Amino acid sequence: MSADPRLLANAIRALSMDAVQAANSGHPGMPMGMADAATILFTEYLKFDPQDPDWHDRDRFVLSAGHGSMLIYSLLHLTGYAHPTMEEIRNFRQLNSPCAGHPENFMLKGVEATTGPLGQGFAMAVGMTIAERHLNAVFGDDLVDHRTWVIAGDGDLMEGVNHEAVGLAGHLQLGRLNVLWDNNKITIDGATDLSTSEDIPARYRASGWHVVSCDGHDFDSIRRALDEAVADPRPTLIDCSTIIGWGAPNKMGTSATHGAALGADEVAAARKHLVWDSEPFDLPEPIVTAWREAGRRSAKTHEEWRVRLAVSPHREEFVRRMEGRLPQGFSLDEYFAQLAANPQKVATRKASELALEAINALLPETIGGSADLTGSNNTKTNAQKPLTKEDYSGRYIYYGIREFGMSAAMNGMALHGGVIPYGGTFLVFADYCRPAIRLSALQGARVVYVMTHDSIGLGEDGPTHQPVEHVMSLRMIPNLAVYRPADAVETAESWALALERTDGPSLLCLTRQNLPQLRRELGENAVSRGAYRLRTATAARRVVLLATGSEVEVALQAAEALEGQGIGADVVSMPCWSLFDAQDAAYRADILPENAFKVSVEAGATLGWERYVGPRGLAIGLDRFGASAPAEDLFKRFGFTAEAIVPRIVAALKAQGDQ
Amino acid sequence: MSADPRLLANAIRALSMDAVQAANSGHPGMPMGMADAATILFTEYLKFDPQDPDWHDRDRFVLSAGHGSMLIYSLLHLTGYAHPTMEEIRNFRQLNSPCAGHPENFMLKGVEATTGPLGQGFAMAVGMTIAERHLNAVFGDDLVDHRTWVIAGDGDLMEGVNHEAVGLAGHLQLGRLNVLWDNNKITIDGATDLSTSEDIPARYRASGWHVVSCDGHDFDSIRRALDEAVADPRPTLIDCSTIIGWGAPNKMGTSATHGAALGADEVAAARKHLVWDSEPFDLPEPIVTAWREAGRRSAKTHEEWRVRLAVSPHREEFVRRMEGRLPQGFSLDEYFAQLAANPQKVATRKASELALEAINALLPETIGGSADLTGSNNTKTNAQKPLTKEDYSGRYIYYGIREFGMSAAMNGMALHGGVIPYGGTFLVFADYCRPAIRLSALQGARVVYVMTHDSIGLGEDGPTHQPVEHVMSLRMIPNLAVYRPADAVETAESWALALERTDGPSLLCLTRQNLPQLRRELGENAVSRGAYRLRTATAARRVVLLATGSEVEVALQAAEALEGQGIGADVVSMPCWSLFDAQDAAYRADILPENAFKVSVEAGATLGWERYVGPRGLAIGLDRFGASAPAEDLFKRFGFTAEAIVPRIVAALKAQGDQ
User: Which secondary structure element, helix H or strand E, spans residue A286, and what is its range?
Assistant: First the structure.
């Protein structure tokens, strides 16, 4: 690099302020403030190859402060990625431009994670680093030997999830993680001291981090800090003193540059201030050349890596794992055969453990964990040893009481590739994970959430621990596959689907209490249809009972009782709504025939069940908080027994003049 | 206190292990480990009066580690509260016992907050302390001069929300907050060092806290630490070194005591170890007497306070506020009259600000704030000065980028009483707040959530910032009133209802974009019915359009277009589902007539709308993530225009042979 880094950085500044100005929307302050540090990082430190953005051993870069998206769009364009093109940058924040308001991993190569919801980019980077260290331990330095870099803002650091991410990274001593903190002392509301008085470096040190600082506008200072970060075996926070909106002479250093276009006058003034004569979206050739050259910096390293891969005995397995393909012929058939031969009456959380014993033996890429509920979530199988700072090859993570941090880390692991993360907590604490679950879904990340104690069946812990609204509200999240299996077979079928799914997350809702195994004749994966007829009416069918999870057993008992009264009743198990909704109309109509009286039974919110039972049907559920008592008492108290349900159905049939 | 504190503490231990043993469910380890420190706190420091648990100037005590609920049940019983009785303790964790698995504020006086979801008790205590300092600033030492005490476990401290709570408390220098940390080095999964390596005192100091430590089983050490905590002007973390399950000779110090009954043998061994001869639930008389005496310790202080209150010029206003009554004759009529006279075409977030200008002038008890989006949430009104460590009388809190911490703090403020908190963030970040929103609802706390940018109407920030599933999934939370007003009038009506509601939280979903004012003739609060007919069909009614918020305008345009084709169409605005569902059948049937074709229009998840449109109706919504573009482009792209909607309705009518 012979070009003056300030000139290179000013190209970022110009693109950023011009794109935001053109859109009249966006955040110029952060890209302009961090342009200098980012220039040094991308031109002298980051290992990447714009010609092959998917290079498995590239460094990962996460712009946690995602609102500063023009920073990464500028960097990708300047270093020579195929996208974004200048035209796409011109269309920043317009429909169909990959230069979205916040960086979206599914729109641009080089955007390793979708960021914007504060704190999560950082926390995902922790997961990426875990994946890297794990794969390094498995495949060795020859194939896996890279770093994860983050640019984070004050908002990222103030969010609660940051504490969880910092704690986890410190505990696991993730020295390959380096975070550049854009310490500009400004938030949207004004100066940071409006709302915080924290000594941030001291907090990081308290969690085992290495902290260095630099003047974020002094290139030698930045280089020294990055060198120290790279040299240290601990995760490093690089405290970059910066001025937000650097280059905008009248607004820099103020929150006015944070979240709005600078305005034509200030853009003009900045041009003058930066001695930047080019028209908007027109870059001086020498600067483009210098940037492109920087983009080719790691080409040789990449080529050497390619050679090592080509001759590696691990090549096939490594590539398979990095590409997210399950081993050829992967199947749980043997385990299903065991279930058929030897039915299990177990809680579905236990059934999940049984399935995982089979899965973890077949899939070396799974990495399990729990947010301090290992014995309750049944997430740890026998063969798994812990992943620790002494041994990253372990496949089980004690995440601690960090539900959100765990979920975000799992997103990062899935995005990194090479591993399939799953992690557990109580279903009620899906609320704590929810911002990360949403990002799993948006990013299409293969993460499996193992959420146990999925209803009032949790019992004595009471309403704070009993999910009521959770199953239904999770079904609302686009691209999230929510499973509520009814027995050991459906649990294994759900697991199989979750693992085979490559384009998004799955979430398993599992019981604390034992459930009988309902099927022994096993063929096609029944859960793959989302819903299926588990019991066919004996008498003329007048009722179809729809149920999920632990209430399928109750529905079967109710059906028996109805048949005793001469009322024919189907029972449909509906473990996964989104899969059922994707079936063809004929299948759906067969399962939910027009002329039958439909009754849903689920120990949770009824709102939503109208989709299947219709306005004349009956939705039996729980639209209030639960209570503390043994599970059986609660099922009785809230009417989830055949004795309580059957009279309601009979009365409804009568009222409809149907009897 | 002449009794040996160890004997007093052992009464807690005995009750705790016996109650858990009887229930065969619960957490004996924490109450047994913290019995000594809690005994000193309750018998020598805490200001409270079991004869009048609602004494406004009592100290607040929050058991953040709520799983150790037998600790607080024991303390309440022993100090002489009317409840729990010994019979109720015997029925620990059984249906209808107030001694629920986790402490529920609605079941027992003396339980200041519902705890169990980790981290939140602590964070609510921060809010309680803010309320106390604020009321102290307003009403003076004579009426308000108390402390907030917390017992927190490692789980509370590891949760992300702890970082937010600690940061806020440190920034506001809440010296009246003292937290006893049950530092027993054990979590459910095992030793804390399985998952964390943090220097916790250093972290607290980094946020401006005072930290002291003590041996949690040495009474003089505990006293010294509490004295230092009380003397220091900063919030204090009291690091209590304890042994979990202290007294159970074979299991103490291990996670085996954490979350399960000790077992009959170990209970017997503990009796021997503690030299405790009494039968389960039978307490030695001298010990009961000593505890009861301790319970009367603050009676004189209470009486003196009563006298001061009786003669205080603030008496009436203070009592009104503490009892949560709005001022007599409170009404927004004047503001409504202004809206009638001078209609406002504004975003509903701006309409909320306009309403708040009126409200904040009339209600001195409101305390507003935002998680660093003040200018976007429009939460700050002109007259509000900030609440700061220098001036607690302020009525606006810059919460920082701490959505969850803000929400939990608001719960604490509402539970403390005397203030009505409201706070803002973007609706999409309701996910970050969700665990606290659930606790607002469960606890019946009057908190108002001001959630702006409530759909793809947010525009360019893109899918990470665009709520899709949020409005519907919030409707699932029991006891949460969710409002999505359509204009300035409905926004003010929603605000009026939120303030008048005393038994739970309200959440306002507000637009970024401008909306026309739809009503000028104002009478009854139309939102109070949940849904109402905004437009009556001119031609014979065949269609009823149901919409909320910004889509009401679209529905009105669609209705006009339908009428142009001779198709009569009502438009129903449905700002609050829970209020509509509470209307009588006749009203509901009038609004949603059987024979009309029903169409819902809401720029969010459709799942749930079947409740009102039925299986033959049409739910127009958004069941995928949004995109980054100007709002108008997105409304067009996703079909939320009359031009897009009308043909779908006409086609559906045709398909149904209805035309």
Answer: helix A285-295
Whether A3 contacts A287, CB under 8 Å = yes
CB contact under 8 A, A464 and B116: yes
Of all residues in chain A, the one with the smallest CA distance to B635 is: A95
Q: Catalytic residue, from B159, B164, B353, B403: name it.
A: B403
The band of A2, judged by pLDDT with boundaries at 50, 70 and 90, is low
How confident is residue A522, by pLDDT bands cut at 50, 70 and 90?
confident
* Pair of tokens at residue A112: 């390793």
Q: Which residues of A touch B188 (CB under 8 A)?
A: 372-376
pLDDT for residue A659: 44
Q: Rounded to an integer, what distance in angstroms lies between the CA atom of residue B287 and that of residue B4? A: 9
Q: Closest partner residue to A475 among B67, B607, B610, by Cβ?
A: B607
For A440, residues 6+ apart whose C-beta sits below 8 A from its C-beta are A407, A410, A411, A414, A447, A449, A480, A504, A505
Residue B3 confidence (pLDDT): 85
Tokens of residue B321, six digits: 């506020």
Query: What's the rounded Cα separation, in Å, for the pair A401 and A397?
Result: 12
Q: What is the DSSP string of B339-370?
A: HHHS---EEHHHHHHHHHHHHHHH-TTEEEEE
**Residue B71 dihedral angles phi and psi, to the nearest 5°:** -60, -50
Cα distance between residue A238 and residue B72, in whole Å:
45
Q: What is the mean pLDDT of chain B?
A: 97
| The pLDDT of residue B2 | 63
Chain A residues close to B473, C-beta within 8 Å? 469, 472-473, 476-477
The DSSP bridge partners found for residue B461 are none
Q: Which tokens sit at A393?
A: 């090859």
Distance, in Å, from the CA atom of B246 to the CA atom of B29, rounded to the nearest integer, reads 7
Global pTM reads 0.98
Q: Which residues contact B81 (CB under 8 A, 6 or more apart)?
A: B50, B53, B108, B109, B110, B295
Residue B421 CA to residue B405 CA, distance in Å, equals 13
| Integer Cα distance of B459 and B376 in angstroms | 14
CB pairs under 8 A between A and B: 337
Mutation site, B426, B503, B628, B635, interface A, largest A CB count within 10 A: B628
| Shortest distance, CA B315 to any CA of chain A (angstroms) | 33
Q: Which of A373, A473, A629 sits opposite B94 (nearest CB)?
A: A629
Tell me, rounded to whole angstroms, the distance of Cα A212 from its chain centroid: 30
B527 in Cβ contact with B490 (< 8 Å): yes
The answer to whether A633 contacts B117, with C-beta atoms less than 8 Å apart, is no
Handedness of CA B526, B532, B534, B535 (dihedral sign): negative
Residue A94 main-chain phi, psi, to 5 deg: -105, 155
Q: Is B524 exposed, middle or buried (0-12, 13-18, 19+ CB in 10 A)?
A: exposed
Q: Is the peptide bond before A233 cis (omega within 30 degrees of 0)?
A: no
Look at A198 and B170 and tell me if their CB atoms are within 8 Å. yes
Distance between CA atoms of A154 and A449, rounded to whole angstroms? 29
* Cα dihedral across residues B585, B587, B588, B590: positive or negative: positive
Per-residue pLDDT tens over the stretch A352-404: 999 999 999 999 999 999 999 999 999 999 989 999 999 999 999 999 999 99
Handedness of CA B429, B435, B441, B444 (dihedral sign): negative
Distance CA B147, CA B151 (A): 13
B403 as an active site residue: the answer is yes
Q: Contact, A271 vs A247, CB < 8 A?
A: no
| Contact indicator for B417, B324 with CB cutoff of 8 Å | yes
Is the four-CA dihedral A495, A497, A503, A505 of positive or negative sign?
negative
- A41-73 burial, b if ≥16 CB within 10 A, otherwise e? bbbbbbbbbbeebebbbbbbbbbbbbbbbbbbb
pLDDT of residue B1: 46
